[in-house]
Amino acid sequence: MNDRADQPLLLSDCQQGILRLTLNDPARRNALSQALMAELATVLQSAADDSAVRVIVIAANGPAFCAGHDLKEITAARAEPDKGLALFERLIDSCAVLMQQIANHPKPIIAEVAGVATAAGCQLVASCDLAVAAESARFATPGVNIGLFCSTPMVALSRNVHTKHAMELLLLGDMVSAQRAEQIGLINHAVAEEELTATAMAMAAKIASKSSYTLQVGKQAFYNQLHKPLDEAYRYTAQVMVNNLLAADANEGICAFIDKRPPQWQDC
Asked: What count of other Cβ atoms lies within 10 Å of the Cβ of residue 115?
């Protein structure tokens, strides 16, 4: 439950096919508390089956995009008879499920990052399909500095950046700039702060103009083939593409291209 009855932990707004979700716990630097993760998971689940939602943008209010897990919540649990074991298991499991929900979501998800994204917050950025950040944004997996290696964040991190770049972030625990994050593939673009929202929303609008069926097929296939052996990946994606060619939207899109007219998607 939200312990701040005066304001929601998560703001939601959907316009023209773009669902904009804003983390709204700036006092705790948008830490991934149990409550915030539960709200985010619920909204994402609802959006999966909502035909009005074609693409999702995750942003945040305050000076931090997301500071990772709530360390005060973790520390308080150590006073329990089990030394916090039950909470730790729930917390880490909930976060892992949430990150997989983002990766497996049928709609493309864009992270719009202002401020810092650290530990599980960096994991959240890496888990999204696309990420745009303000030039002033900073990223880190600093768990090693407090005796807690960022083991679960490294799953998403290691699937987005080169092994040595991932290990540098994990072993040193240093903050890196948005420009460096762009260089190593953690984010797509670093832009001026005043252009951040416009850039993310422009990307979202372009995606929203596509066939949602085609986007779902493509996103699922991308992640499914990623770690298959080369020959298996080609066999798998060949069948995906054949099935895609048989779909109504592929027929419509190809005919529209030939006829030099805008396509009228049926999303099937």
From this structure: 23
Cα(262)–Cα(213) distance, rounded to whole angstroms? 17
Which run of H or E residues covers position 48?
A: helix 34-48
The CB-side HSE value for 202 (13 A sphere, CA atoms) comes to 8
Q: How far is CA 163 from the centre of its chain?
A: 20
Determine contact, residues 22/61, Cβ cutoff 8 Å: yes
Contact 203, 196 (CB under 8 A): no
Choose among 146, 157, 153, 149: nearest CA to 32: 153
DSSP 258: H
Task: Determine contact, residues 40/24, Cβ cutoff 8 Å.
Answer: no
Where are any strands of DSSP class E within the chain?
Answer: 10-15, 18-23, 55-60, 64-66, 109-113, 116-118, 130-134, 138-140, 176-177, 189-191
Distance CA 113, CA 30 (A): 12
Distance CA 266, CA 261 (A): 15
Count CA atoms closer than 13 A to 55's CA, side-chain side. Answer: 25
Residues ≥6 apart with Cβ < 8 Å to 58:
21, 22, 23, 109, 110, 111, 112, 124, 128
pLDDT averaged per 10 residues, the chain (length 268)? 70 97 97 96 98 98 96 92 94 97 98 98 98 98 96 96 97 98 98 98 98 97 96 98 97 97 96
In order of start, what are the domains of the chain with their CATH numbers?
10-208 (3.90.226.10), 212-259 (1.10.12)
